[in-house]
Amino acid sequence: MSRSRQSRAAGSGSVPFLVLDENRLAWTAIDSLRPGHDAEVSRPVSTLIYGPSGCGKSHLCDLLVAASGNTAAIVSAADFAEQVARNYKAPNVFDPAAEYSPLGLLILEDVQHLCRHPSAQRVLATLMDDLRRAETTIVCTSNQPPAELKGLIPRLANRFRGGLCVSIRNPGPASRVQLLSHFCSHLQIGIPLPVLRLFAGELAVSPRELLGLLLRFEDLARQQKKIPDARLARAFLNQEIAPQQVTVEDVAKAVARQFGVRLSDIRSPARDHVVAVPRQCAMFLSRELTGEHFSKIGDYFSGRSHSTVLHACNRIRQQLDNDAGLRQQLKRARQMLRIS
């Protein structure tokens, strides 16, 4: 399961990761775990990256997964808890150690979802010990540090504290300007710097939300055939309450319209090339624009696995480098969603 360092910047599927003051320590921690980075330096028992939604935790993990290739797995904590619960009803169906120890890397996302599942926490604590003996790297993400996760059992909290815990914060004003400029440069969006500074000063939000706002403003200027200047930006901001959230279904509908296929065909199990590429594009944009987990995206597309979704994301990303036509199709799909 992988996506490369050139994959996304906190919510942007085709933008390289931008290292900022707010994410530098987290980036350094993840970068140090890359295979072959420095074999002589001992690795922590576990690494926990914590911070608010949309700040780039998943993207950082994706960079590490990209470097690890097929020896990595990404699992949501909610799915892990569900697997453990099912195993209690049907013993020996799920053996975490047998499933994950052969891997070089296991990423467990959103461990805060385990706080209501003490049994899953106990299984995870044991699994972390097993993975350490198997020399499997484990990285977790959370919206809070271990000390603030209510319901975390002491045994698991101690495992996290015994490893490396690194925070990642939403960008401050200066970093928001850098991010917005970065997005514009790599997505070829022509918005003047004064406008970017206005957005950065007015909106203390996550990188993902900044991207959504930027893309919607570009769409507004295009639809109204107006110059994207400070006056239009101010009018746009005065009507803003919160960045609109896009769903996987929204993305799938936009891609279906753009490629001229039926939504039902994109969601079907069919593997025909005529729907395979649009489906992969829909998966790619769903991950980019919604931030949903691979498994959740796969569920929408006839229950496909998270590895299938990840493969689709990688394939489309690679094609974007050399296929101008595909880049235009994805851009128009974003525009249909009225966020780009």
Tag the structure with descriptive keywords:
3 domains; 7% strand; Rossmann fold; Chromosomal Replication Initiator Protein Dnaa, Chain: A; alpha/beta; disordered N terminus; 16 helices; globular; single chain
Describe the structure.
With 340 residues, the chain is of the alpha/beta class. The protein folds into 3 domains: 24-167, Rossmann fold (3-Layer(aba) Sandwich), CATH 3.40.50.300; 176-238; 248-336, Orthogonal Bundle (Chromosomal Replication Initiator Protein Dnaa, Chain: A). Helix content is 54%, strand content 7%. The chain is built from 16 helices and 5 strands. Strands 2-3-4-1-5 form a 5-stranded parallel sheet, sandwiched between helices. Strand 3 (105-109), helix 5 and strand 4 (137-142) form a beta-alpha-beta unit. Helix 14 (294-300) packs across helix 15. The relative contact order is 0.13. Residues 1-13 have low confidence and may be disordered.
List the helices and strands and how they pair.
Elements: H1 24-31, E1 47-50, H2 57-68, E2 72-76, H3 77-89, H4 96-100, E3 105-109, H5 118-133, E4 137-142, H6 154-161, E5 164-167, H7 173-187, H8 193-202, H9 207-224, H10 230-238, H11 248-259, H12 263-267, H13 273-290, H14 294-300, H15 306-320, H16 324-336
Parallel strand pairs: 1-4, 1-5, 2-3, 3-4
Helix pairs in contact: 1-2, 3-5, 7-8, 7-9, 8-10, 11-13, 11-16, 13-15, 14-15
